[in-house]
Amino acid sequence: MSQQKKQIAECLTTADLWELMMQRVPPIVSEYFRGGADDETTLRGNVRAFQQSMTTAYGALSFSSLDLNTKVVDHSLAVPWYIAPVGSLRALYPMGDAVASQVAGEFGTVMTLSTLSGTPMESVTEASDGNCWFQLYLCGGRETALRGIERAKRAGFSALVLTIDTGVSGLRALHARMKPMQVTGPFRGLGLGGRLKLAVRKLMLAPQMLPRLSWVIEHFRDGGLMQFVNVIDEQGEPMPYADIGVQLAASAVTWNDLKWIKEAWGNKPLIVKGVHCAYDARKAEEMGASGVIWSNHGGRQQDRVPPTLHIVAQEMPLVGDTRLDFMMDGGVRNGTDVLIALSYGIKAVGIGRVTAAGIGAGGHIGLTRAFEIMESDLDRAMRIVGVQSVAEIHARGADIRRESQLDGDGHLPPIVF
Ligand SMILES: Cc1cc2nc3c(=O)[nH]c(=O)nc-3n(C[C@H](O)[C@H](O)[C@H](O)COP(=O)(O)O)c2cc1C
Question: Any idea which fold 3-173+242-402 has?
Answer without folding.
Answer: TIM Barrel (3.20.20)
